[in-house]
Amino acid sequence: MAVPAFGEVAERLRRSTVLIHSGLRGKGSGGGSGVIWSDSGLIVTNAHVIRGSHACMQLWDGREFEALVTGRDLSRDLAALRISARGLPTVSIADSSRIRAGELALAIGNPMGFVGALSTGVVHAVGPVRGLGPCPWVQANLRLAPGNSGGPLANAAGEVIGINSMVAGRLALAVPSNTVNAFLHAGASAAWLGASVYPTWIPSAGRNLFGLVVLEVQEGSPAATASLLPGDILLGAEDRKFADIADLRGLLQGSGARQVRLEFLRGDYDRIRKVTVLLGTSARPGQARAA
I need a labelling partner for 163 at 20 to 30 A (CA). Which of 14, 147, 149, 191 fits? Predict the structure, then answer.
């Protein structure tokens, strides 16, 4: 079977990639890209791209829609949204377990205000990355910039192998397509914390501690009620320190109202503070299943 030219592949991917503005009618700060996962209005992007329960997005043909967040997983940096549209151009999804190092890779996104920008490279590896937990990442040596987050990473045939998420050193990291499908089928099974976090290492008393920096806190969320603030560094629960971002996901897993005692740093690295977070009582944005 002949492999289509990059230009043809890129054009198909552009039609299935959306421009996302966090907040309603594009008034929110920040933004990024998203992928049309189904022709019935399901959009997939990164959790860090979406800062609330709604977002404004623009399709390749210029149409704009208000989208509702229907699922979010901070540990895998994924979010699902719905728009009221049908017959949308969708992507073909590849089996990410079959990705091999050395394969050609294409990324489409909206970096630095350039809509539908194409970046090419090769797959470097597929597997976990130190400090980001046990979950695998598609690692490719292609260039990403702010605005690429949430866009598709595809193979030479134009099949999506991952959702671009971040840059580590000179490598672009994408959430594998199989992980995305697992997220969509699992739905919202974990409690909602309402805080975006990022892993970091903290120098303290001659050793490095692992922590999760709070990037933002959603209004009315359990994190906000507990008075957590952007810049706080979560260290873990009283009985278990965080070793990677997946530990937070494990802590949130489950249903029903419950209290969790978190340890965190604020302002300095010498004093460990504690706070009680009440989970399972506040409705998260979009209680519907992602798919």
Answer: 191
Domain spanning 92-185: which superfamily? Trypsin-like serine proteases (2.40.10.10)
Per-domain boundaries in the chain: 13-82, 92-185, 195-279
Q: Is the pLDDT of residue 188 over 50?
A: no
238, burial (CB in 10 Å: exposed 0-12, middle 13-18, buried 19+)? exposed
CATH code of the region 195-279: 2.30.42.10
Catalytic residues: 48, 77, 149
Write the pLDDT tens digit of every residue in 76-131. Answer: 889 999 999 999 999 999 999 999 999 999 999 999 878 899 999 999 999 988 87
